[in-house]
Design brief:
heterodimer; A: mainly alpha; Non-ribosomal Peptide Synthetase Peptidyl Carrier Protein, Chain A; two-stranded antiparallel sheet; 44% helix; globular; B: alpha/beta; Alkaline Phosphatase, subunit A; 2 domains; nine-stranded mixed β-sheet; four-stranded antiparallel β-sheet
Chain lengths: 100, 534
């Protein structure tokens, strides 16, 4: 995969999702953005979410522990926006952690 | 064409079936696999001992690394992390392999490789000299996981290329573990015919365009077909007066093998007369005749405590998910997934964690082994679990701590069920295919012994053999070796087997993200496709 890392986390997330979904034949009402919901708007299934997490980790060269984003109080979070993914990445990048 | 080594993986292939398919049946018709018959005649072959749990992830990764699961660390489709009072699960991927693969070893020594449809090659390595299209990846993610990143668009230009036929279709595949209707079983076998054709077309195209030193492609339909169609391909299960459905299913299944034989023939011929050809399977096959609900048994013995199912649809989905839904505060030993066929003992190593105290480990494990030995057929007194291995005995290595504490082998080689259903042992309505530890390994071409049946070899030997065929040293830390007797004395004199430097480190062993309960359930549903579910 070519390097899709951009200046900001949200730009990176959008670029990765653009790349990821280019062959899916999605009929989107609006362009992929921070407000796009992965399940409702982009038709992500569980395995697609896992692949997005892997793509982000590969792009940044580190693991992020996405369970903290995907779960809240032991329960599944119904849907997430790309902005939430970006914010989670930002938080992790700004906290201490060793690169993979 | 400069292909030096052609490796064809046949997932789940067994001599039990192949030996029958290469026979010329005379008046009944010629051999189903005449080209395979010629390879048997002019090459050498051996049974191939699989990994302690003869399962796709540990077995293919051992084949690709020359090392056992205790070193590479891939034991199952799913990797679990014990975290305090919960267990998180995530899908394993190539980053979990802790040791170097032959694709990387060959690449860094200047050899060009093409590896197609092998599991746990996604995401692809960054150091590859050649091309890679991973297996076990849904079509929507094949572009991103193919290497180099321009490859996918090249594949799309192949006439007739259809990525949705080529790649995993989880929705379709998840039927394989269920008891299907006759119609569904027929459709199941038919489904795999175009898939293999797609992989063949990609292999043929890339072999011609890339001319790699090592050309490797895996045909995984053998495994998938045999899970549902075992009664129609096992020679021992054929009768003099089969039903019309049985006859139709057998013909359909034989048609699959006939087509596969043609693909192999075309690939071998396209590679040219100087190529050395190797084929192997990750495990063999046999019939599973009973369901063994291991967590239900462990619950009877007090090790497992099931959690109360939520009401309504959620509870129904949970009950049908085949995934252990356990009370982690009380459970001290359990089976994580049906495919692992192992028991994990929960040890509380840090404050706040649930499980037994570390000092209790040996006593609990000893008692657990005794209880597992006591699971017997009430009619015959025969043990249901015929082998119980401690992990240090079968998974020595730096990655042993990720292994189940006990590895089980059932009397019919079946995979366990983790459902909360009784009885613990129940006869299946009809036999289904399951994995047998004896796979296949054969070779032919210049420098290979002709018509020779070798003693049983180990799955880690394949990697050593492929590197030797490429003219490369065998890394000193490989567990496998080049099989004595596979190559001619003259060839070995001209091409001595050289032990080389140890492999470089893999990239795995780091922490991955977990999944929600719903995620776990969905993944487990997807794993039904692999035929390891009740």
């Amino acid at each position: 995969m070519s390097n899709l890392k951009k200046n900001t986390a949200i730009e990176t997330v959008v670029a990765i999702v653009d790349d990821l979904t280019q062959d899916w034949g999605l009929d989107l009402e609006s362009p992929i953005s921070a407000d796009s919901l992965v399940a409702a708007d982009l038709q992500f299934a569980s395995v697609d979410i896992i692949q997005l997490c892997v793509a982000l980790e590969q792009c940044y060269g580190r693991r992020f522990g996405f369970q903290d984003l995907l779960m809240k109080d032991g329960s599944y979070v119904g849907d997430l926006t790309l902005g939430q993914f970006a914010a989670f990445v930002d938080t992790n990048l700004n906290s201490e952690g060793s690169p993979a | 064409m400069t292909v030096r080594t052609l490796f064809i993986g046949l997932d789940g292939a067994t001599f039990t079936v192949l030996n029958d398919l290469i026979k010329d049946k005379g008046a009944e018709g010629g051999a189903v696999m005449p080209f395979m018959a010629s390879i048997f005649a002019k090459g050498s072959r051996a049974k191939l001992q699989s990994t302690p749990n003869p399962l796709t992830p540990p077995a293919w990764v051992s084949m690709m690394t020359g090392r056992g699961p205790g070193h590479h660390g891939v034991y199952d489709f799913i990797r679990a992390e014990e975290r305090g009072d919960d267990v998180f699960f995530t899908l394993s991927d190539s980053r979990d392999c802790r040791v170097e693969t032959i694709w990387s070893i060959a690449s860094r020594q200047g050899k060009k490789v093409a590896a197609l449809n092998f599991p746990f090659t996604a995401p692809p390595p960054k150091d590859l000299n050649g091309v890679m299209v991973p297996g076990f990846v849904p079509w929507r993610h094949l572009r991103r996981n193919s290497f180099p990143d321009t490859l996918y668009d090249r594949l799309k230009a192949i006439p007739g290329f259809n990525v949705q036929e080529l790649a995993w279709d989880f929705e379709q595949e998840k039927q394989s573990g269920n008891e299907l209707s006759d119609t569904d079983r027929e459709e199941w076998v038919s489904y795999h015919l175009p898939r293999e054709k797609q992989w063949f077309k990609v292999a043929e195209h890339l072999m011609s365009e890339e001319a790699p030193d090592l050309m490797a492609v895996l045909f995984d339909g053998v495994d998938k077909l045999q899970h549902q169609a075992w009664p129609y391909v096992d020679p021992a299960m054929q009768t003099a007066e089969p039903s019309a459905f049985h006859t139709r299913m057998r013909e359909l299944s034989l048609g699959y093998f006939r087509q596969l034989d043609g693909f192999i023939e075309q690939l071998v011929k396209a590679a040219g007369p100087e190529v050395q050809v190797f084929m192997s399977s990750d495990h063999g096959f046999t019939a599973s005749t009973e369901i063994v609900r291991i967590n239900a048994y462990l619950a009877e013995k007090g090790y497992v405590h099931f959690r109360e199912l939520p009401p309504g649809d959620a509870g129904q989905r949970r009950d049908n998910s085949y995934f252990a839904y356990l009370d982690w505060h009380k459970t001290i030993a359990y089976c994580r997934t049906p495919s692992c066929n192992g028991i994990t003992i929960r040890v509380a190593r840090n404050p706040g964690e649930t499980g037994i105290a570390p000092s209790e480990y040996e006593a609990v494990r000893k008692r657990l082994i005794r209880d597992l030995e006591d699971l017997k057929d009430p009619e015959t007194g025969e043990r249901i679990i015929t082998e119980i291995h401690k992990r240090e005995d079968v998974f020595p290595g730096a990655a042993m701590e990720s292994a189940p504490d006990l590895q089980l082998v059932l009397r019919d080689y079946g995979f366990v069920s983790v459902r909360n259903v009784l009885p613990v042992v129940e006869k299946r309505n009809y036999p289904i295919g399951t994995h047998h530890p004896d796979g296949v390994f054969f070779a032919c071409g210049p420098g290979i012994e002709s018509g020779k049946l070798l003693g049983k070899r180990h799955i880690t030997d394949v990697a050593a053999t492929l590197l030797y065929s490429l003219g490369l040293p065998v890394p000193s830390d490989f567990e496998g070796a080049v099989p004595p007797g596979m190559f001619t004395a003259d060839y070995k004199a001209a091409n001595p087997i050289v032990l080389g430097a140890a492999t470089l480190s893999g990239t795995g062993g780091v922490q991955a993200e977990g999944m929600s309960d719903d995620e776990k359930q969905k993944i487990m549903e997807q794993l039904q496709l692999l035929g390891y579910m009740e």
